[in-house]
UniProtKB/TrEMBL annotation:
UniProt entry tagged with the keyword Hydrolase: no
Domain Methyltransferase small per the UniProt entry, residue ranges: 175-266
A GO BP entry: methylation
Superkingdom classification of source: Eukaryota
Protein's gene: HEMK1
Enzyme class: transferase
Pfam families xref list: MTS
Gene Ontology MF term list: methyltransferase activity
Key words of the record: Methyltransferase, S-adenosyl-L-methionine, Transferase
Protein name: peptide chain release factor N(5)-glutamine methyltransferase
């Protein structure tokens, strides 16, 4: 469906903070303004609208202008991506136009597109997103995949070793602890992929705890997850043993070096919880706390998966070497899709009696 430009342009302007002008929030796009105002009979398609907002975003130095425009317009039309739009989606454009007008100025203020849309896909889940809860990145999807690969590998080895010995199936899957759950992306993805598993998710930010609860209920996973408002610095850890010792600890902890914080993108500094990012002078503050906690709550031969800064794998290995009492060792380091050492697989060995 097409919409008259004059009506569209009038609505776009009147809903911006500076009524009738593209004031300090919006830098004008002269070419488009001339094009859209030259004829009252000219029509605009969804493609034209995406092109318009792309130019506006670029004029305001918004990162990923094309992708932002496509995501927002497609979201308003009821689709995940512009490529997935069909005729029926576009027909809905006429009644949902007002939402696009309210969402785009938020992006111009450098609000991350995930917060603008209020939702984002992670693995095969669609999760609610709210500021300032940390937005899960693509690298963290790789972290989840590593856990699944390790689990399937162990299951295959177990089956091969015991194929001649009948054993009743284990009715209970692994118990997983996620430290710093944010939106619940990691824990909920693992619960979906491992049907017999159970999870405990903790975060020091109450907003994050509430958002994880909301996402768990939307995905109907709330009966298999215990979500706690808990700080890893707390001296009390017994509450984490709701189902006994855990099989897996997983975390994307705050690991940004203090000196690197000022170099983060403005939209991150302005909207996201900086406490979910900064890891102290060496990026290891929270990582060390997790490592100190692990021996008390992790089963013997249990696994821990951490997302870290590329400088951390060597630092963590050296730190564990100097703390043998923790009974932990780095069994593997994995690279992200950019080829940087990003993920640590740490295991607990059984202490000698």
């Amino acid at each position: 469906m097409k919409v008259p430009v004059s009506a569209l342009y009038e609505k776009l302007l009147c809903l911006l903070p500076h009524h009738g002008l593209l004031g300090s929030l919006l830098n004008p796009c002269p070419r488009l303004l001339r094009q859209y105002s030259c004829s009252k009979t000219e029509l605009v398609t969804a493609t034209d609208l995406i092109s318009y907002w792309k130019d506006v975003f670029e004029a305001n130095e918004i990162p990923e202008a094309q992708a932002s425009s496509e995501y927002i317009v497609s979201h308003v039309l009821g689709a995940k991506t512009f490529q997935s739009l069909n005729a029926s989606n576009i027909a809905r454009y006429f009644t949902l136009l007002f939402r696009e007008q309210s969402l785009c100025p938020k992006r111009i203020s450098k609000m991350p597109v995930q917060y603008v849309l209020g939702e984002w896909d992670f693995q095969d889940l669609t999760l609610k997103m709210k500021p300032p809860v940390f937005i899960p990145r693509p690298e963290t999807e790789e972290l989840v995949s590593l856990v699944l690969k390790d689990k399937y590998k162990k299951k295959k080895l177990s089956s091969a070793c015991c194929r001649d010995i009948w054993q009743p199936p284990d009715p209970l899957g692994p118990v997983i602890l996620e430290i710093g759950c944010g939106s619940g992306a990691i824990a909920l993805s693992l619960l979906r992929k491992l049907p017999q598993s159970r999870a405990i998710a903790i975060d020091k930010l109450e907003t994050a705890v509430n958002l994880t609860k909301e996402n768990a209920e939307r995905l109907q996973l709330q009966k298999r997850i215990k979500i706690l408002h808990h700080d890893v610095f707390s001296s009390s850890w017994e509450c984490l043993l709701h189902w006994g010792l855990v099989d897996i600890i997983i975390s994307n902890p705050p690991y940004v070096f203090h000196e690197d914080m000022s170099h983060l993108a403005p939209e991150i500094l302005r909207y996201e919880d900086l406490g979910a990012l900064e890891g102290g002078h060496d990026g290891m503050t929270i990582i060390k706390e997790i490592l100190n906690l692990a021996p008390y709550i992790l089963k013997d031969f249990g696994s821990m998966f951490l997302e870290v800064d590329p400088r951390h794998p060597k630092m963590v290995k050296n730190w564990l070497h100097s703390h043998p009492d923790l009974s932990l060792f780095v069994s593997a380091t994995h690279k992200d899709f950019c080829g940087k050492p990003r993920f640590l697989h740490i295991q607990k060995y059984k202490r000698r009696s």
